[in-house]
Amino acid sequence: MLASRTTALAHSAAISAARQPRNSSFSTTAASLHGIQRLGVVGAGQMGLGIALVAARTAKVDVLLADNSEAQLAKGLKFAETLLAKEVQKGKLSQEDADAARSRLKSVKGIEAFGDVDIAIEAVSESLPLKEKIFASLADTLPAGAILASNTSSISLSKIAAACGPERASHCVGFHFFNPVPVMKLVELIPALQTSPEVLARARAFAEAMGKTVTVSQDTPGFVSNRLLMPFINEAIIALETGVASKEDIDTTLKLGMGHPMGPLTLADFIGLDTCLSIMEVLQRETGDTKYRPSVLLGRMVSAGWLGKKSGKGFYEY
Ligand SMILES: NC(=O)c1ccc[n+]([C@@H]2O[C@H](COP(=O)([O-])OP(=O)(O)OC[C@H]3O[C@@H](n4cnc5c(N)ncnc54)[C@H](O)[C@@H]3O)[C@@H](O)[C@H]2O)c1
């Protein structure tokens, strides 16, 4: 294992050494570990935007951001500017570093613009057919040797890798960030059955260059994080729908009694109720275990378009 990791790192050092830096502020130390100078992000929603921002600010790589909604792209870049300005105001970032980070972020029309990225991270909605379509396009567009990563919360990476075709599958990996990306310190890496050790080592180095701590999970439904978190959130919603307590009392019990930074219903609103429902459906379908049955109320709220913070209404109003 150690030998293959060393070989992998030596290989990526060779890749980066063979390239001229496209970005003058790009660190050659970082390059020698992950070999990444340019990132493409698909999906400029709450996760994609956070990933793009942290990559530009902390890993100091150029970022191309694509979304099929122009309004979402414009909103995302404006939000990135607001977050950078806040960091400058708080004295966490110099104006010069904020300007440099902003200049590394560029919106593009679509995946067609990813012809020279070293890694693409997909962060579109949690739907297997949608992700399969996107990974087939990424496999057609990205240069040889580029990493194809997904921020999926629950979908099988081995399925996503299969959508890339046999030649690309070894370069596909799960790159699971947490919300909000600029704040949460973890990246959970999920190798598909097909992922090569070299790609996993480069993904780890890139996540670390973004300032994150890495854990690794097998490709099982929900991985470690959502196999534990989502049934807990779902049970809180079932407690609400069966009248065990009010939403405020459920959240306050977990906050003040268990020291959670936010209650499970507030957390569900932050994650997005559509995402929560999709994850429960994956857990239920792929394990066949009835303990993962999604709450009826959760399904009804998604049908009503009450998706949580991102739509302005979930268990609470925003
Ligand atoms: N929300 C969370 O807490 C969280 C945490 C970890 C992982 N994730 C995962 O991250 C992914 C994105 O979640 P999110 O919360 O950012 O969702 P979101 O709804 O905020 O954003 C999804 C974005 O994808 C875009 N999109 C949809 N189809 C597209 C296409 N064909 N091409 C380009 N863009 C397209 C949408 O316009 C939208 O901007 C999901 O897989 C989710 O499971 C979410």
TrEMBL record:
Residues 222-318 form the 3-hydroxyacyl-CoA dehydrogenase C-terminal domain. NAD(+) binds at G43, A44, G45, Q46, M47, G48, D67, E126, K131, S153, N179, K310. The record marks H176 as: Important for catalytic activity. GO terms for molecular function: NAD+ binding; oxidoreductase activity, acting on the CH-OH group of donors, NAD or NADP as acceptor. It holds the Pfam family 3HCDH_N. Pathway: Lipid metabolism; fatty acid beta-oxidation. This is 3-hydroxyacyl-CoA dehydrogenase. It comes from Leucosporidium creatinivorum. The lineage of its organism: Eukaryota, Fungi, Dikarya, Basidiomycota, Pucciniomycotina.
